[in-house]
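During the reporting period the student researcher (J.K.) took over the structure-prediction task from the postdoctoral fellow and processed the backlog of single-chain submissions. One of the processed entries is reproduced below for the supervisory committee.
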Amino acid sequence: MSLAFRACCALALVVVGCRSTPSSGTAPAPGGSAISDSAQVAQDIATLADDRFEGRRTGTPGNDSAAAWLSRRYAALTLQPPPGAPCGAGCANGYLRPFAAREPRRNAAPLLRETRNVVGIIRGTDPVLRDEYVVIGAHFDHLGRSTEGALDPAAGDAIRNGADDNASGSAAILALAKRLRQKPTKRSVLVVHFSGEEQGLLGSAAFVETTPIPLSRMVAMLNFDMVGRMRDDKVIVYGLATAAEMRAVLDSAAAGLRLNVSQVPDGTGPSDHSSFYLKDLPVLHFFTDVHPDYHRATDDFPAINVAGAVRVVDLAERALRTIADRPARLTFTKAPSTQRAAAGPGNGAYFGSIPDMGAADDTGMRLSGVSPGGPAEKAGLKAGDLIVEFGGRAVKNIYDYTDAIGASRPGDVVAVVVVRGPSNERLTISVTLGRRGG
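J.K. obtained the following structure tokens:
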């Protein structure tokens, strides 16, 4: 889960067991084999969180190797490559979709990292509905040996393997894909592992802009991020207000599973579902909460609750099958932003914007959207606006932007200068800031 995006949201958007023995690291069994869900999930998490991938940081050989490993898992599951792939079914390279991740940096030009998402398709059974898609996704990158974004900088270049963040979510969608291959749904399913999430949802942002399947044919997106540390039977699910039918879908899915499901209306948050919600797609985001090992070298396989991760897959499979098999598409709705975290830097000022973390080439801070009912929306800011000045401070990047908001106080009336539209109209908009957590 992206710490950079979490920190940015804390200022701007303001969002908010059993232990298993590590596997031997042998090659995973092909999809459809006799290996149990729990054993396969354990094996997949242990493999992705192994030191051989050195924490899977975007733009490193370890991240590239992890993507190649995932593509071999797709081939073993006999997923179809997306349209336009350079080879047919069974060719692992056909699942890899390269993109350039532009990582924003303070007082420096963005850092360009060549990386790749991994994409496959499970075709639906209905001759009409199979041309529509439900997306299941998880990011596979983590921090690697870098202290950038780490909460244990004193550990230096120790490998941060991210067993929960997000080998757990990556393994969860592989388990879900296996079940769907064995019993397909009426609609097709698009399976995606994203890179670049830790740098600001860059992989999912790139995917929705260059998707191999038109967005108009996608009906919903289910995201899995940090689902490996379930405690007290609790799972948090975001996105309940992103479709008129979504609460009923989740209530039905949870029936009889003996889970403590915490339902959150928001469609945005610090993970890849946000990129899809901002394209007006209903989303569900599955999450088993933060823990003391988050973004530290101690987030490793021995602490994973494998049985809990499988229970998340059970819940998500029920919800997905309802969405993928229902005759009509879900009815998208704009969700309120309710998770206004009180923690975070600054003086508690709330602006209510959604930064576009993938727009690192811009000189300024471009907005993906604005939070419904927030100060930015009330003042007239819009998705696509490029903020170049905030409260008298020049804004050249995400760091200038968060610094400017952090220097403000609730109730301040600030002048926000934006560049808008294809004509690059320059506007000065007066915004009364709210209070974070209020």
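The committee noted the following: The chain has a mean pLDDT of 87.
J.K. will present the remaining backlog at the next meeting.
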